[in-house]
Fold each of these.
Amino acid sequence: MKTKIAKIFPLVLAALVLAGCGVTSELVIPVTGATVTKQETVRVAIKSKVGSVVVNINGAGSYYDQTSGSYMGRFSKVANARISVENGFLSINGQTGKGRYRSSRVMMIPEEGALINVDGVNYRGQMEFISNGSDITVVNHLGLEDYLCGVVPKETFASWPEEALKAQAIVSRSYTIAKCDENYQKDYDLTSPGDQLYGGASAEAASTTKAVYDTAGNYLEYNGKPLLTFFHTCCGGATEDGEKIFTYVRFYPSGVTSPYCKGCKHYSWEYSISAGDLAAKLKAAGYNPGNASTLQITKRFKSGRVAEIKIGNAALNGEQLRKAVGYDVIKSTRFSVSKSGSVYTFKGNGWGHGVGLCQWCTKGMADQGMTHEQMLSHFYPSAKLR
């Protein structure tokens, strides 16, 4: 896999991750001598700019200053340690270290597969704590396959058919690799939940872990690069061209007709809102619709999704409208609108942005006996499975 996902950090920290899904080799942690497994490393920000976190580790390990790469010390276990920031430096239970024990960036590395518990959630791998001056960002460093074992059960249902779970595993892996290539010079590659839902080891399920194992290393390539594989809950009958929804995307597989998600409860939906409430929501989002007494859909994409809409004095696109009013009520931009008195009624199909894989379609396709390869070929035309 020729990507930048494998990185070089001070000492060997980025090369060391704990036992998990896909094992490729073994290394030994310096100083402690603990044997651990190696995977390609993913860095996931599980907490961004928070005041503090509580950490527990039921086992021994080491910690390092991540800025200099120097060894700071060893712990036999960590019990209810509240990590926060004092005067720009990381503190534990309100106390900062001195000399080489004073740091604004610390990596904790447990031994022998011990899990790190942050705010009640168990995680595999290592945990980095970064001071932002007054708050902290917490970054989980772990193997790619370990990470996916905590993603797939959060992004789909562990009870779904095996082929649907395999499709999700590959799509999540491809998305991860593409983001790692994009962000390798930054402090982290992905965020949770911003990029993908991630529940750590606490979320793992046997069926989804098997899907990750069974597809280990497989990802999608498009135009010679790992594909940033967008996916969504329910397409409502058709997906959309990537560049139509995400303007920063170039050369993306085209949208397709896909009738397999009719079993989803979000396939059809309806939402009503008064003109006054609609105007208030748009104003709060920074638009100037006036009293929103008029509404006109001025342009649609080929999938039927709303490309442009004018509400009173405000012109915006469909996704901007969803963001302003609420993603959970205007569930997609594949909608029509009617008005009765001062009340608008939106009637639509599907849930999500509509680009790439439709998760509920994969269940429908699996129920019809289709393979994960067929699903991926359907939703990402011309992409190559590697």
Amino acid sequence: MATPTVTRPGATTVGPGPALGALGPRRRPRRGLGRPDRQLVAYWFLAPWLIGILGITLGPMLYSLYTAFTSYNLLTAPKWVGLENFRLLFQDPQFMQSVGVTVKFTVISVPLVLVCSLGLALLLNTGIRGLSIYRTLFYLPSLLGSSAAIAILWITVFSQPGLVSDVMSFFGVQTGSLIGNPGTALYTIVVLNVWAFGATMIIFLAALRNVPREYYESAAIDGAGRWQRFRRVTLPLITPALFFNLILGTVMASQTFTSAYIIGGATGGPAGSLLFYTVYIYEEGFANFKMGYASAMAWLMLLALGLFTVICFATARFWVHYGDER
């Protein structure tokens, strides 16, 4: 008589012989990190960024918002004065002058940067040889344009004697120091800002290369000329890039500091023609020790740029076109 085989529940038998489950105890699957452990590891990796955003960005911003309503000279404790700093701002002629200089610079330089960068991007998009080399060469000035070394170089180019004045005098034109002239000093900074248009050009070039070639072929079949293809096909399809460059360029132009401070000095150049808003903030905060006053100016700039951005986004639906729209 055969001896019955006893197996534990859940064991599997294959033909005669002992059950597979009876060969030994089943191994427990290895447990990985639990969900709380994974979250803890993620927070450890995010810790440097969190410390930076809280300690270097958000913390100082909130403290500057507090000091904007105080009288604070960096040496004694802040004293609450309410809206007094904001009231004094609009009675300060230098504040109004700095606003005018910054607005004038932004209104002139930003459109010039957009036009020059878009024109060069269109030229590079024609399929010329050595595109990567040209793209790199035109991008380099955007990395150097805001440096102190380029600002010092700009002084030697536009001062008297300088490169521009020497070249113009060779043709019999006496220009003098363009930086020392209140009527032309601001335009030297405009030229510097336009010279460093490489980043804007790269964004336009990427947008142009994403325009489907079929659209141009269809427009050409319909008899559209070069200008009509640009106006009816190219320009509408790159409006997202134009929108991005407009906002970013305006924000960056309004925050111009290094070149303006080195070229114009702390006093804002000849007759205050280079008294940019950021230069005046620095002068009031760290030279005159009016940190509360400077903080109020900084928050007014933040509100103005925020309002400009809101207006741009509110009006974008009328002129910015995206490819997935129906």
Amino acid sequence: MNLRRALLLALLGALALATMPAPHATSQPSHRPRRAPVPNDAPPAPPNETACNYQAPQDFLIRENFVLRFRMSDEEQAAHREAAERAIRYRTEHYGYFEGFGRHEWNAHTPSDNATRTRFMDLPIQVNAQLLPALACVEEQLRTECASTGYQPRRLSGLRTRNTYHNGEVSNHVYGIAVDVDPTENTCCMCVAQWGDHPLCQREVESIYERMAMPACWVHVFERFGFYWLGHDALQDTMHFEFLGDSEHILKSDGPPPVAAPAAPEQTHAAPEAAPAADHAATPTARR
């Protein structure tokens, strides 16, 4: 009886396996996305009728100028580590001490102490209080210059209390000087692998603008007021703007900034080479 039962169960099992559907024939494993071309197409800046200065990001604060790459020589790595320390000290002194980066004696206050809640383009956001006039001027110009695009963001992300960079980097979000615009609609193809699986990242495009919902006009306006767009970075993080200008010279009443934005904006640094897969595998970036 036991033998019959065993044979019957084995037969039923074999029939079940035979009738199981085969794996989906058209499914293909995702592959690492290719970097999209970034047009250098910023138009000449219009006359500045806002209360803020036009200014360029400070070069030493731009991530590509201090991030480490495996293919660097020892001398290059040493120079980038020194530059990274300078950038951390500047952000600490100006925006607050974030535990684990820099020294507490550089600033007795934390970025959260210096943060404030505000509204930008009718949406709530928390940022460093020093950014309020810059964001107000950006919004004024967006409403004037980019109204015809019809773009209205649905979600913003500003200050974070947890660092989302790895391997010794610290995100500008923890200092309250970074703004993400519609994170689910503006891609970061070269961040973590699951973001690279986004359909827009998996297909070839002629311009990085094809991988985001936000119009290019927004990028050009932000960049005039000291914000750096991380679409230029090897991460190609299209949602992300970070204020790298001089916070002490945001308003015209504060005097001109050390580095004024050019009338026809140009690249302030050499375009980064496509980062090898090992770089991203070794330095995963969950969020900026």
Amino acid sequence: MLGASENTDPPPPEDQRPQGRIRSLLVIGWCLLLGILVVVSIIFIRILFLRTDAPLVPEDASDYPKGTAQEPWIPEPVASPVTQEPAAEDRPPEDPIDTEGPGAPFYQPLPSPPKRILGFVIDDAGNNLEELEPFLRFPGPLTIAVLPGLPYSVEAARRIRASGKELFLHQPMEALGGQNPGPGAIYAGMPAETIRAVVEANLAEIGPVAGMNNHQGSKITRDSQAMETILSVCHEQGIYFLDSRTIADTVVPDVAKRLGIPIEERDVFIDNIQEKSAMIQYVEEGLRKAAWKGSAVLIGHTQSHALASILEDLYPKLVEQGYSFATISQLIQDPSQ
């Protein structure tokens, strides 16, 4: 229609409209990619030039143990536990290493090897001097117990003392089986005064002695009152007591503990069987007990003819293996020796 205004510009082609959107997306994508590259480059540079051996520094300057925020903290060197001098109260009581000097190292001493001590006792001396002689020649410590009232009791005691062996009174005591214990014996039902008189008379005959042990006595060593009297005499005379343990339920250890008197106890009878192989086996049993508990008491008898030669043959071998020999009084005085 004439006089009406019309737009004469043609519209843009339809295929040019999405191109503007694509350009915008490409610009945004390139910006994101550039940002990622910048971040990655920064991280790489920090990793490349960061000193990994530098000490860690707290972010807050107030957390520094010393110095300032401009002066990073360097930790104090830690003392080695080997060279650090311990406090006096932390040291073992007996240290063979001198730690008193400045900078002297401290060493923990090695534990001592276990001690294996053998105490051999030979009973029934006094019957025969010829049977006694081989034991007097034994090269190591030995305790020999003499029975009282026999034809050779006094002479046997004299020879034992002269040889340097330890002398004990082998005190006869009543047994449960009714066997004859021999002269100078203690019987059940004896009053304390009689028991005391018997023991003192036997000590006067055989003594001086280092101690006594019981001959038979399975009935008396179960009697608390009788054993209290016997142990009291031993304590008054300054001698020791060895419980031969002829019965399992002996009261001697309990009575001795109540009286505060130290005693020793038999571990093995060597010659219950009078064969050489059997006696060696019993000695080996004593060795095992000594290795287990530190010491062992082994009892034999003078009438065992092969026993003296067995002990003499074994002595150097046992010493070489680390066993030591002691008398009964030595064991009672110092069980750890």
